[in-house]
């Protein structure tokens, strides 16, 4: 059977088994959605940029060889990253180019837009924010030490009408909550800007629980990572539609 294209979902990689399970579940959901739209089977694979047994270029090559054996001449590479950092702008394109040099010329590699660029992402995040439930909300991201690296999160927070906080740089979540409590806020919601649960989302939950234990008047809500969003599968598929920012090799 001939398919139009294969799809490769690319994540950063993690030692947390929940991340591995999460990307496998997402791939299966994408596959199921595609098969519900077309009776034929679809190849939807996963890969990691780091912390894997093989480099991303090797993983692309392995999948590419499999596709060619099945007469599939097009592979769409979908970066499931939320920010346009070095991984999206430099590392993944370099790995794709390296894979291209190792594959036959008749396999086309297309790098789709990254997940964080989806035009509906802000709307989907806003659906978790209930202004009647909490007085104020914070979006919590990993954070970057590169100049301008946190600007996309700051912009997103501004668009959502909430505040930003980060795991690796200031303002930290603990600092932000203390600041808000000093200003008189007692009901605070936190929206984790992560694709899957992991040790950072665990740490966010611990920070909030400890804060509440220390200050009984403090009440909080904790949102879910994006893998819990019912629209995520469609957002991933949207990225595979022809776009000016997609690149074809």
TrEMBL record:
Keywords for the protein's UniProt record, in alphabetical order: Lyase, Metal-binding
Keyword Plastid: no
Pfam families for this protein: CbiX
InterPro entries according to UniProt: CbiX-like (IPR002762), Sirohydro_Cobaltochel/CbiX (IPR050963)
PANTHER family: SIROHYDROCHLORIN FERROCHELATASE, CHLOROPLASTIC (PTHR33542:SF3)
Protein name listed in UniProt: Sirohydrochlorin chelatase
């Amino acid at each position: 059977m001939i398919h139009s294209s294969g799809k490769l979902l690319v994540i950063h990689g993690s030692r947390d088994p929940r991340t591995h399970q999460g990307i496998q579940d997402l791939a299966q959901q994408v596959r199921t959605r595609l098969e519900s739209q077309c009776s034929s089977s679809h190849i939807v694979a996963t890969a990691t940029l780091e912390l894997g047994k093989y480099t991303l270029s090797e993983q692309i090559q392995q999948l590419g060889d499999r596709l060619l054996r099945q007469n599939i001449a097009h592979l769409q590479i979908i970066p499931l990253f939320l920010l346009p950092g070095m991984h999206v702008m430099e590392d993944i394109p370099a790995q794709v180019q390296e894979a291209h040099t190792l594959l036959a010329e008749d396999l086309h590699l297309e790098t789709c837009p990254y997940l964080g660029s989806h035009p509906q992402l802000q709307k989907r995040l806003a659906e978790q924010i209930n202004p009647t439930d909490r007085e104020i909300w914070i979006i919590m991201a990993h954070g970057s030490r590169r100049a301008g690296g946190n600007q996309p999160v700051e912009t997103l927070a501004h668009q959502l009408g909430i505040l930003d906080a980060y795991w690796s740089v200031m303002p930290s979540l603990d600092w932000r909550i203390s600041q808000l409590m000093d200003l008189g806020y007692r009901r605070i919601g936190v929206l984790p800007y992560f694709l899957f649960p992991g040790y950072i989302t665990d740490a966010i939950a611990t920070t909030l629980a400890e804060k509440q234990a220390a200050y009984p008047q403090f009440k909080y809500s904790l949102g879910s990572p994006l893998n819990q969003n019912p629209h995520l599968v469609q957002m991933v598929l949207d990225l595979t539609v022809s776009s000016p920012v997609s690149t074809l090799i």
